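We close this part of the discussion by returning to an individual protein. In the encoding step, the backbone of a single protein was reduced to a row of integers, each denoting a local shape. The sequence in question and its structure tokens are set out directly beneath this paragraph.
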Amino acid sequence: MYQREWTVENHWSMGPGVGASDWSCCSRWEDAGTPVPLTRTEPGFRPLFVMNHFRDAAVSSTAGTDNSRLADRARRFWLPAARKKPNHLAVDRCELGSPVAALNTFTYP
């Protein structure tokens, strides 16, 4: 299966391993010939939302900080951009900062 037919996905990186962060939530496919918006739905089908929450290079201290801020990113960026909770979460160092717990306890209005 071609991924773009079954999923919507945000851009794969929040920036380099350390330093500035890009917390925005824009479609991974924005610059493709046929962009796929994060809000895409079709009659009788809602694509899976793959949420990428990692950087170019995994650095333990940065990953722990980023992962602990997952709920804040969801509230400020994912919700306005995608209008839904992710079905799949991709993070660096999932054992740091409890990112899955943060996402599971986050309630979308």
